[in-house]
Design a protein that fits this description.
Structural class of chain A: mainly alpha
Strand content of chain B: 15-25%
Largest sheet of chain B: 6 strands, mixed
Number of helices of chain A: 9
Largest sheet of chain A: none
CATH architecture of chain A: Alpha Horseshoe
Low-confidence stretches of chain A: 1-5
CATH class of chain A: Mainly Alpha
Radius of gyration of chain B: 19 Å
Shape of chain A: globular
Strand content of chain A: under 5%
Number of strands of chain A: 0
Largest interface: A-B, 31 and 35 residues
Structural class of chain B: alpha/beta
Distance between the termini of chain A: 14 Å
Helix content of chain B: 25-40%
Oligomer: heterodimer
Strand order of the largest sheet of chain B: 1-2-5-3-6-7
CATH topology of chain A: Serine Threonine Protein Phosphatase 5, Tetratricopeptide repeat
Shape of chain B: globular
Number of domains of chain A: 1
Order of helices and strands of chain B: HEEEEEHEHEHHEEEHEHEEHE
Mean pLDDT of chain A: 93
Order of helices and strands of chain A: HHHHHHHHH
Number of domains of chain B: 2
CATH superfamily of the largest domain in chain B: Dihydroxyacetone kinase, domain 1
Radius of gyration of chain A: 16 Å
CATH topology of the largest domain in chain B: Rossmann fold
CATH class of the largest domain in chain B: Alpha Beta
Number of helices of chain B: 8
Chain lengths: 222, 331
């Protein structure tokens, strides 16, 4: 057993994660909207902030629930508050994470990684996007692969999430040179090349905020 | 940003309240979740016709709610698709037992949200069919894009499907008529100026005084090309040529034509465009049997226009002529 398994991921730390992410969305609202203005319809930051603000308001009421209920509540809130493509996609991520956590009140790091992978697969199915289509999948897919790989090789959750964030960031930056084949940006054809995908950017922030939340928590358990 | 608003975050709700006060005999507005239904909904035994999409395209869709057209409209925030809970609640409010047709414009967000809503409705025993509108010839229709955007033909589909449903057609028939409208209609638009999303406060894109965007989307999405400004006749020629290249309407065919303002273009200019459009149709021996000229599918205050042509047979013309009582269309 590696030392990272001492960290039990419960709704308290997951609440910290979602709160941190909601704050980062709020801080980056203008940036995300600007990215979207270049190749989309200039609403990604606004919609995400709207949805995660609602999640943040409701989060205290979700704490202590079984993880399936905790994640489902987040997913349903996003589904009803975000709109656009982001609502169903981020909503699906959390709904699927809830299904993957059925019957549990805490997750081990590897269970967390598995739940996240199930959520990302849900996004891929709902949006029928493949890697390389210039979407949030391009940040999330390498991130969940890196997370799994690092944990399987004995890394701590902190180290694994940092690797995942690095992979997610690289994936996000790789969208700059991609041509969009999904979503509104696809209408631009080759004109979509040269712009960073706003969905991949908000997706990278989700992984980055996980690393920033779980690393200090893991230190504290040592 | 100079707009007649009170607060960018409640633009949609305040406009809905205004509509409800203005047209109590036509429609009712509900909030949280937001939707608009015709005043006499639900109509037992009648197929419900429901549409929705981002706000900012007024009068679409709320202005088309009423007898002979839409039973419900689900307005999302500005340029943002409605959410599944809105669509589900509106569906329950209009369900008369004969199922519901969702008229959905082809945008990724709209499709995902309407898909989830359809699953929710079907789970509670409501039969749902979806009509996807993708008529914008400015956009490449290929496997490598999300497909063509839904624009002007939406108005024709809502009117014609609404008339078919009002006449008692079953769900599959209403959907089939809608698909025919989709197959036989094409649109193309252009912009002279950008729109400003209230929550953003700045123009979505910038066009110089001597530039225009050909093929612009109704959310300020870039179009085919940015070119030097030309005359009304030259612009009409470009739009119509692109439509005719895509769907060569047969000589001798009849069409319903719409010259649509994007929100910031005066009617006097739209008539100049229609004058040229009529000439071009004459030259091809195409008869404009019916026309709509005005602001129907707008993009906030964007200046510009779009042209939509729908090849119409006796069935479609008959349904087009059927009575309609909505805030924006009435005869």
């Amino acid at each position: 057993m590696t030392s990272d398994t001492t960290l039990n991921i419960d709704t308290a730390i997951l609440t910290d994660w979602i709160n941190r992410y909601a704050n980062q969305i709020s801080d980056n609202k203008a940036y995300l909207t600007e990215l979207d203005a270049e190749i989309g319809d200039a609403d990604h930051g606004i919609n995400m902030q709207h949805g995660f603000e609602a999640v943040q308001q409701r989060l205290p009421g979700f704490a202590g629930e079984p993880l399936s209920v905790f994640f489902k509540n987040i997913g349903m809130t996003l589904l009803s508050k975000v709109g656009g493509a982001s609502g169903p996609l981020y909503g699906t991520l959390f709904l699927r994470m809830g299904m993957a956590s059925a019957g549990k009140s805490t997750l081990t790091p590897i269970e967390f990684a598995e739940a996240l992978a199930v959520g990302v697969e849900g996004i891929r199915q709902r949006g029928s996007a493949r890697p390389g289509d210039k979407t949030m999948v391009d940040a999330l897919t390498p991130a969940v692969l890196a997370l799994h790989h690092a944990l399987e090789h004995g890394a701590t959750l902190c180290a694994a999430l940092q690797a995942a964030a690095a992979a997610g960031e690289a994936g996000m930056k790789a969208t700059i040179s991609m041509q969009a084949y999904k979503g509104r940006a696809s209408y631009l054809g080759p004109r979509s090349i040269g712009h960073q995908d706003p969905g991949a950017t908000s997706a990278y922030l989700l992984i980055k905020s996980a690393a920033e939340t779980f690393c200090p928590a893991e230190q504290a358990t040592r | 940003m100079k707009k007649l608003i009170n607060n960018p975050s409640i633009v949609v709700e305040e406009a809905m309240l205004g509509m409800a006060r203005a047209h109590p005999h036509l429609l009712r507005a509900y909030f949280d979740p937001n939707y608009i239904v015709r005043a006499d909904a639900p109509r037992p035994g009648k197929v419900g016709v429901l549409s929705g999409g981002g706000s900012g395209h007024e009068p679409m869709h709320g202005g088309f709610v009423g007898a002979g057209m839409l039973d419900a409209a689900c307005p999302g925030r500005i340029f943002t698709s409605p959410t599944p809970d809105q669509i589900e609640a509106a569906s329950h409010a209009i369900h008369g037992g004969a199922g519901i047709l969702f008229i959905v414009k082809n945008y990724t967000g709209d499709i995902l949200n309407f898909d989830i809503a359809a699953e929710l409705c079907q789970a509670s025993g409501i039969d749902v069919a979806t009509l996807l509108i993708h008529d914008d010839v400015a956009v490449q229709d290929s496997l490598y894009t999300a497909g063509r955007r839904g624009v002007g033909v939406t108005v024709f589909a809502e009117k014609i499907c609404g008339a078919a449903a009002e006449a008692g057609a079953p769900l599959e028939r209403v959907a089939a008529i809608g698909r025919k409208v989709g197959q036989q209609g094409r649109s193309m638009g252009m912009a002279l100026t950008s729109c400003i999303v209230p929550a953003v406060g700045r123009p979505t894109f910038v066009l110089q005084e001597d530039e225009m965007e050909i093929g612009v989307g109704i959310h300020g999405e870039p179009g085919r090309e940015r070119v030097a400004l030309q005359t009304a006749d030259e612009i009409t020629d470009i739009l119509v040529a692109t439509i005719f290249d895509d769907l060569p309407f047969r000589r001798g065919s009849r069409v319903i034509a719409m010259v649509n303002g994007m929100g910031g273009t005066p009617l006097i200019e739209l008539y100049i465009i229609f004058r040229r459009l009529a000439r071009l149709c004459d030259d091809r021996n195409i008869t404009i049997s019916r026309n709509l000229i005005g602001n129907y599918v707008t993009s906030l205050e964007m200046a510009g226009c779009s042209i939509t042509l729908l090849e119409a047979d006796d069935e479609l013309l008959h349904l087009w002529d059927a009575p309609v009582h909505t805030a924006a269309l009435h005869w």
